[in-house]
Design goal:
6-stranded mixed beta sheet; Rossmann fold; globular
Length: about 250
């Protein structure tokens, strides 16, 4: 299932150990006020296909920094992050963009929809970056909108949507290319409880149907209840990594 035929320009080899994502001794430092602030300090993780995993911890624990490195939006200061067989610190700008465009979907708490475009056009945008032909784009966008229950809103613009609908569009945009990995940074932060649970149930269904690996950065208990694996960060270190029994009740 998915986009095997679409990968010729952005093909990534599977990791040798079978994991989709491997971090080894991962360190990230930022210059701050004349000294180096260590945001991540020796992160070692293996994440496999089909996981529904959360990076959990308070603000400043390193969750978003780790998510950005996994998504090839940032680079390690030392150590490594191998994503789909590619060590991200060795990728140039074009190669990083190719990895993201072909294999990774992103969901942000602020939706990041393009306000001048319709729902359909927002979901279609990642496929335009891939150079997919029009007929295949149309089928893929239609399917993605069906997944999130927004076929009747396809010609609306973001300003005409509720917060829950906007986040469903963001999910459709992330999933339309059927990526191996979806990275979600506080995806329920701006949603009420009902919409949060609706979005999370939909993500669980997509995870099950497509075997997409979902990785969340969150401190929202509503999200945490849905996780099958909880990786707790504190001060840039993994302090707990354990399997979870998800709770899908409201």
């Amino acid at each position: 299932m998915g986009n095997q035929a679409d990968r010729s320009a952005g093909e990534a080899a599977p990791a040798k150990n079978g994991a989709l994502i491997t971090t080894s001794g991962l360190v990230k430092q930022f210059p701050t006020g004349g000294y180096l602030f260590t945001a991540l300090n020796g992160i070692n993780l293996l994440i496999d296909r089909g996981e529904f995993t959360g990076l959990v911890g308070p603000s400043g624990s390193g969750k978003t920094t780790l998510l950005n490195i996994i998504g090839a939006l940032d680079y390690p200061s030392s150590g490594s992050a191998v994503v789909l067989g590619s060590d991200t610190k060795h990728l140039n700008h074009k190669q990083s963009a190719r990895l993201r465009n072909h294999h990774i979907g992103f969901i942000f708490q602020t939706y990041n929809l393009l306000p001048v475009y319709t729902v359909y056009e927002n979901v279609e945008f990642p496929l335009l970056l891939l150079g997919m032909e029009a007929d295949r784009r149309r089928r893929a966008v239609t399917q993605a909108l069906e997944w999130v229950g927004l076929t009747d809103r396809a010609q609306q613009r973001p300003a005409q949507l509720s917060g829950g609908e906007s986040q469903r569009v963001a999910v459709a945009r992330a999933m339309v290319k059927k990526p191996e990995i979806v990275l979600a940074d506080e995806p329920t932060a701006n949603l009420d409880a009902e919409n949060s649970h609706n979005i999370l149930r939909m993500m669980v269904e997509l995870n099950t149907e497509l075997e997409t690996t979902f990785i969340f950065a969150t401190h929202d208990e509503k999200v945490i209840r849905y996780l099958r694996r909880r990786i707790t960060l504190r001060d840039g270190r993994v302090v707990e990594d354990r399997e979870m029994e998800p709770d899908y009740t409201t």
